[in-house]
């Protein structure tokens, strides 16, 4: 069976009350009868999305479908001990973002 590969940020991952299987990628995989490989994660910036694509090129087969979603161009990602993104900070400010575990520090 072929696969559908989803690369993106929270718009593609399923986020908050939306489980990954109910995201548009999950719905597409069900409708098309494909295995779902959703690498999208909330907060991903465009560099991380591209990194995820390149990291999986050896697993993508000829009849697989790739959905590549660009994120906001003002997002920046950083690697410390794990990936950290500036997602939402320019739009919502740091006070709002402190409510999320990744930004609590």
Secondary structure layout plus pairing:
Elements: E1 3-7, H1 10-13, H2 24-32, E2 35-38, H3 46-55, E3 65-68, E4 77-79, E5 83-85, H4 89-97
Parallel strand pairs: 1-2, 1-3
Antiparallel strand pairs: 4-5
Q: What does the model show?
A:
The chain has 105 residues and is of the alpha/beta class. 30% of the residues lie in helices and 18% in strands. The protein contains four helices and five strands, in the order βααβαβββα. It has helices at 10-13, 24-32, 46-55, 89-97, and strands spanning 3-7, 35-38, 65-68, 77-79, 83-85. The protein has a three-stranded parallel beta sheet with strand order 2-1-3, with helices on both faces. A hairpin with a 3-residue loop joins strand 4 and strand 5 (83-85). The N and C termini lie far apart (44 Å). The mean pLDDT is 81.
Overall outline: globular
Spatial arrangement of strands, main beta sheet: 2-1-3
Biggest sheet character? 3 strands, parallel
The number of helical segments is: 4
Distance between the termini: 44 Å
Q: Quick one: how many beta strands?
A: 5
Strand content: 15-25%
SSE topology string: EHHEHEEEH
Over all CA atoms, what is the radius of gyration? 15 Å
Helicity level, as a percent range? 25-40%
User: What is the average of the pLDDT values?
Assistant: 81
Judged by helices, strands and strand pairing, the structural class is alpha/beta
Unreliable spans are none
């Amino acid at each position: 069976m072929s696969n559908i590969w989803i690369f993106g940020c929270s718009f593609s991952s399923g986020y908050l009350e939306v489980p990954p299987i109910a995201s548009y990628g999950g719905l597409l995989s069900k409708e098309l009868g494909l295995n779902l490989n959703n690498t999208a994660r909330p907060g991903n910036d465009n560099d991380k999305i591209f990194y995820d694509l390149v990291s999986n090129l050896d697993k993508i087969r000829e009849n697989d479908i790739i959905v590549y979603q660009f994120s906001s161009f003002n997002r920046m990602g950083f690697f410390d001990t794990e990936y950290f993104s500036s997602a939402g900070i320019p739009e919502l400010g740091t006070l709002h973002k402190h409510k999320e575990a990744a930004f609590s520090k």
